Structure formats: C-alpha cells, structure tokens
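Bench notes, afternoon.
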Amino acid sequence: MTELLLLICAYLIGSIATAVWVSKGVFGIDIREHGSGNAGATNTFRVLGPKAGTFVMVVDMLKGILAIKLSLLIPYYQNPDNLTQLVNLQIGLGLAAVLGHVFPIWAGFRGGKGIATLFGMVLAIQPWVALLCVAVFLLILFLTRYVSLSSIIASIAFPVLILFIFKEEELYYRIFAIAVALMVVLTHQKNIARLITGTESKVPLFKNRRGLRRRRDEE
C-alpha cells in the first residue's frame, strides 16, 4: 500500500506542468498552442527563449529526481540486501513521474515527451551514466544543432553504456535502459522523417531568442 501511495505521489509530481504554467503565468500564452504544441523544455526554448526554456528543463529534471528520492521514505529498501527491490521501486517511481509529465492531471493530460524528467530519473539512479549521456547530447547538438537527433543518439547511448561500459547487473535496469531507447526513438518518428528529408528545424546556439516562434516542428 505504501508503494502504491508513493507511485501516485510520483505521478502527481510529474504532473507539475512547468512549461504550461510558465507560459501562461509569465507570458500570457499556452505553450501548447505555439511552436510544436509540445509542453516541454525544447518547445519552450524555441518559443519563449533560453531563460524560460532552461528554467523549464531544470524543473522538469528535478521532478524525476524527486520522484526517485521518494524511495527513501521506506526504510526496507535502504537495506543493501534489498538492492534489486530498490531498483525496481525507483524505476517504477521514475516512470510514474514521466507518465505524469506526458499526461499531467493538472493540465488536461496534455504534456510533453518527458525527456527532461526521464533524464532526472536516470541522474538520480545512475549519475555517471546520465552525465555521459548529457555529454553525448551536447556533442551532437553542437555538431548538428538538431535537438531531436541529439536526444535520439543520447538515448541510444544509454543502454550501450549500461550494458557494455558499466555492465549493470540488475536485469530490470538493463531492460529499462533498452526500453528507454526504444521509447525515445518511437516518440521521435516525425522528427526522424524530417531529418531524412532535411526539413527538421535547427536550434541556434549562443544566440538570444525573443518573441514567439510559430514553427511546425517537434522536440
């Protein structure tokens, strides 16, 4: 019963609609009606600028971290002998937060793709793996300026690191890593199609962005 309550709490934490609340509260618009229509950090960055986008990204990451930290509320899982059960619980809590981000109860169940929250979740469980994935993401972003391509390659790097570099022994975490990569690829099918046709939008780096950008692209 306690685990179920924590999963519900994790979902509610994930449902904090950062992009929607920032766009409405500060800019007087609904981010879901502009740009790609996605209530995530990337669309916020493109539509509202780097400051708002960075804030949304950080808060969305913190949602994933906080969801994982809920596991600390149950002493049973802090015993080293219960490591497998702890990992399973943490994965469940993290996924509940991601589900909340994608389908937020506080924002009509219309959220983002959950990449930042997913990253926060991984950062809380496997910080070194998460940081290496960030390095991959930033490298690809710097070379190509494509956020979608950077997200896809970083997500593929995740199971590669887990399986072959860090050689994670927990079966469910290995399965989770592979599932994450597949999920990101599947949710970016439209972006992949645009990358192939050369119509995917690039994100300019080191430039200030002002005003609303009504672009038809996805995160």
